[in-house]
Amino acid sequence: MTIPTNHQLRRIFTAVMLVFPVLVFGVRRTDFPDTFVFGSGSSAYQVEGAASEDGRTPSIWDTFADAGGYGGATADVSCDAYHKYKEDVKLMADTGLEGYRFSISWSRLIPNGRGSVNPKGLQYYNNLIDEIVRHGIQPHVTLCHSDLPQVLENEYGGWMSRKIIDDFTAYADVCFKEFGDRVLHWTTLNEVNVFTLGGYDNGMSPPNHCSPPFGMRPCPIGNSSTEPYIAGHNLLLAHSAVVRLYRRKYKSTQHGFVGLNLFAFWSLPYTNKTADVIAAQRANDFYLGWFVNPLIFGDYPDIMKKNAGSRLPKFTRRESKQVKGAIDFIALNHYMTVRVKDSSNSLENDIRDFTADSAFEFILKNGGTLPGQYSVTEPGLQGVLEYFKQAYGNPPMYIHENGQMTPRNATLNDTTRIEYLQAYIGNLLDAVRNGSNVKGYFTWSFLDCFELFNAYESAFGLYYVDLNDKELTRYPKVSAHWYSNFLKGKSYKHSDKLLLHSSQ
Asked: From the centroid of its chain, how far is CA 58?
């Protein structure tokens, strides 16, 4: 395929408004509060590249990829955002992003996991943040996005040890000290529920721990029955330690906020049978309440304590007090609505993992395990935000990831992505108007990048990155122009239509 030039793309997008009615969009940026932030996102390992440059050491994600986790694909170069950050920030500004969500590579900033700060890593993040702020964009920073330094995994097992609490807190202290004068929005950890299950139950993601019969791929080490709960417990303790540090040492001068990020389906009962209705609530308790209940109420959901028993660690009275309230906002990564079917028979198994303890199964409309593209017929943002409003007292919320998955290729006419964004932003507006305390929305992702579960096979980006071009040229998809028009307050009359050509 011949990739259109930017001029041709603009002509494609604006010249002929004739035959694509599904792209008519009634929701406007001005329908949301002025303080609401719209942006897009990435993470360090997925876009930075420069994997072994300027003092950076491997993370558990590097190790997983290098060991063949993606059939030989790695993010050693990826989008090379380490060298191309100025170009990328200019694209963000040109697009009209109000916020940019990214993460810091712990092993780039502190290569040994603790101790000395790497001057070149520090310089890179200072330069990146300065560039973002200079363009009038809010930086929203995640401290750890699945990329724990491998040296700490080797030394004491990473998140399986409580030693991680002190090291993670010390790392956060460096970030707050060095960047907190410009960064107000901090997230400690990304998708703690998915990271824990993928890393310690089914082995589908770093650090690749699991045990038979539960693993979905071979794992060199692990215990699927106990490790997810232990790692999750330590993640909560580490998160709360960082929040306490910020409030004690930085809040009064920096005036920022510290939150936690979870993956969130919107779970609906498969049928109206009582067992499935209860199973849908159980899904929320296990996938969301696992981390949110301790932060709001000081303890795990009762159903988790009942079904997991002694395999679920207990909070001491002191720990419960420390964890409860250790949250300024909750961030969600949300992509689709699922149906939940009861499978309580799994509780009869002698050996159980998290999935068996939760005693339900997800049913997708197409009958597969993951759809090729996400449906737009049942956007679930309003549902999941309403759930947080009702169950947890309407805490401040951010949507950190939301976007459409497509095959990764050079097709820039990503009309399905536009359909998806328009449906979900409209659904988000319904939630805002219904009183949900949601503060911002970020698409995933700004660039096509290295994805957690399938590397370069799928794409979520507003911009295509040509990996076969040594310059790694970025090309705006039609969705980038669409999102830009939305952000800049441009709109089309209800009768307007959009014609997209496959080539020009």
From this structure: 21
